[in-house]
Amino acid sequence: MGGGATAGDLLGLAAIEPDGLMVAEDGTYVRALEVGTVNPLVLDQSEGERVSQAFAQVVARLPDRQSLQLYVQGTPLALDDVLAEESHRCEQAAELLVSLLGAEIEESLLDRTTRLLHEVPHRTPVIDEAKLMADALNLDDFGLIGLIIQAVQLALQGEGVADLAIAAEKREEYGYWEARIKDGFHFEPVRVIAIKRLATSRRVAKMLADELKEDRL
User: How far apart are CA 169 and CA 66, in angstroms?
Assistant: First the structure.
């Protein structure tokens, strides 16, 4: 009975040394290095230049007839779908407002409120109240409130606490929260609240991860 393919079969390797040096079938020496995640969405210009310089230093140290290959693994975000879903939710809220209260409130107030709801999902709303509402909605993703909401969503999909811990770990790896802090708020006081809540949720996520590790011992 034949076994499954090994890494050597897939990569064409003749040998793998204990220190990680690999020898290809054609005699070429190969050394693989796994580096940490770099999220360009959370890098400012100086940090981006620092990362680029680090790669340049690695390349500069390569001797003659040696080369460097970079493999990048990325998880695409269906941004158009996310924005479309948020827009649809706001449109539903505006339609529900008109159907339930359209005959009971002043037309000018109704028009302003429905416009506000339509502007909330935009990146740069015009109305200040829409900016504030957008910040309030984004704030719900942070802290214990955000963890509980995510846990409920995962439970509805048939997933559990282990999946919640994995999701939290992935968000940290990809710099998800840094990107949200940087671009997700219009008012600085709300951003400060989000940062404080993030610190709390990170402590709880770490406690959850530690308990799950203990269960596997």
Answer: 36
Q: What tens digit of pLDDT does each residue of 177-212 get?
A: 888 888 889 899 999 999 999 999 999 999 999 999
Structural domain harbouring 82: 78-121
Q: Is residue 96 part of a domain?
A: yes
CA angle (213, 147, 94) in 5-degree steps = 155
Q: What are phi and psi of 65, to 5 degrees?
A: 70, 15
In a domain, residue 67? The reply is: no
pLDDT tens per residue across span 116-147: 888 877 777 778 888 888 898 889 999 999 99
pTM for this entry: 0.59
Pairing mode, strands 21-24 and 13-16: antiparallel
Burial code (b: 16+ CB inside 10 Å, e: under 16) for 48-70 equals: eeeeeeeeeeeeeeeeeeeeeee
Enumerate the β-bridge partners of residue 13: 24
Is 50 exceeded by the pLDDT of residue 83? yes
The tokens describing 150, both together, are: 């995510």
Handedness of CA 76, 81, 85, 91 (dihedral sign): positive
Residues 137 and 111 grouped into a single domain = no
